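FW: tagging you since you asked about this chain on Friday. Here's the raw sequence from the shared folder, copied in full. Didn't touch anything.
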Amino acid sequence: MQAYDQLAPAGRADLRTDTRYLWAAVVGFLAVHVTLAWITRAPGIETGQDDALYVLLSRSLAHGEYRDVFLVGAPPSRGFPPGYPALLAAWQAVAGARFDALVLLSIVCSTVALALTFALVRKRFSSSTALLCLAILAVNPYLVDVAGQVATEAPYAMFSLLALWALTRTDASSSMVVLAGVAAIAAALTRTVGATLLIALGIQWTLNRRLVSVPTLAIAVAVIVGLWTSWTATAAVPAFYLADAAFSASGGIAHSLPRELVYRAVHNVPTYLGVILPYLLPFPAVPGTVVDNVLGAAITTGGLAAGIGVFARRWRPAALYLVLYGALLALWPWQVSRYVVPVLYLAVPAVLIGSGWLTRRFGASWERRTVLALGFVLALNGTLRTARMLQIRRDCARGTTPPSPTCVHPNQASFFAALDYVGKYTPSDAIYVSAKPATLFYYTGRRSIWFRTAVAQDSASFVPFLVRSGAEYVLLASLQASEPQLANLLRVNCTAFSLVESFPPRTYLFRLRSGALQSDEMSCRALADYRQANIGQDFSLGPWPP
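HL: got it, structure written out here
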């Protein structure tokens, strides 16, 4: 701590140069981030489906409702919290509904989050450390990637960092207390994991003995966040995150909660600290070796632990938030690298500062050298990965709806070709079964039945279920790991379906056969080909890996 404690007052421009150069560098790094995010932005609404869902929900909110319009009957939506759709709806009222305008919102949010990170690290530590962190984060390929998408990561990061920024000024103005609470609630309504920030805020105010702020926050959380959580919990089909929380990572539904939580922690913590976080920071990776993995994991684990310790003494709200966020990831049934992206804004400063603190016993110069060397490695490797992402995406022909085949994976291109056919040649009131119902509706206006319910049927009940539901068409692609399960149900009942059209390499459109449609066995052959083609396929692979 010696090197940092010598800075007085905290946040002094310690670059030993005119502060104009400091702010020029800050603006420069922010401009680089904006440019990279814009150049590498997504080409349109893709097949991940979350982007289509958010846009459709924002349109529903604009009409005073909150419904899943892509499903038959347009039931009330209980899957995603309404914060981001509301933000999108407000943004579209000003900037319009074009896809590039929607992406611009994410870029603005990511840029604000970077600026807040710089301001916070500068205030709590030093200008040089803050500028180094900004340089690393501005070129980080994963932050650049999410900034160019219609996604919640950038808005969530902006709201969470705004809350932390306001917390540093709670002694100066009561309005900052309100801002911190509002921003934290907005974060929780953008991504459910924001509940960890609310808890951190409550603990911070309790420790600071803000006897009015804590109960006020509790009431606001109970009214706003609590009502939404209660609404989703009482749904006939549970919200995604509630269903996931009840799932057993060791297989099936969790029965013994303590045993299940221990199992998750034992499996998740080494993966996040040893693989996911080092890769996202990003540490260099050498194919075919384990030395880089071990070294990256050691630096990440030691630096993060020490950094949180330093934060606990100098920036307690950030330490509380990182610990609570990490605890939730450790106890969640799924290991998803994207969950880490919104906290990279804090994880990078923590690892840098913590690594420097670990070497300070060798002298203040060692501390500075460690921070600079580690920062240089992360900035350089981030630049190289982002440059590779730029190279991969340079041939993308943007501006088409749906995205051009030059911009997407072949499996996505075949799915979009199928959507074009559906929109042109099938009845507008036809009902579908598809693993991507929101994307299907976004581009064609065709509604679907609930996919999870369809694939939950057994081979004997599947066709009668479709008949009762009014579903006439089945769109089978190769975009989701559950689609082979749908294919198996179709294959067992293949004579009950006719093949309408195939879209290479692996997308098929089937129609439930009526008495007027003759079975020609083409559907059976197509399903056999689909099964063979998808053996060993990794459905998690995206088209543009950074």
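FW: Residues 1-17, 541-546 have pLDDT under 50 and may be disordered.
HL: agreed, and The beta strands are 431-434, 447-448, 473-476, 497-503, 507-512.
FW: great, closing this out.
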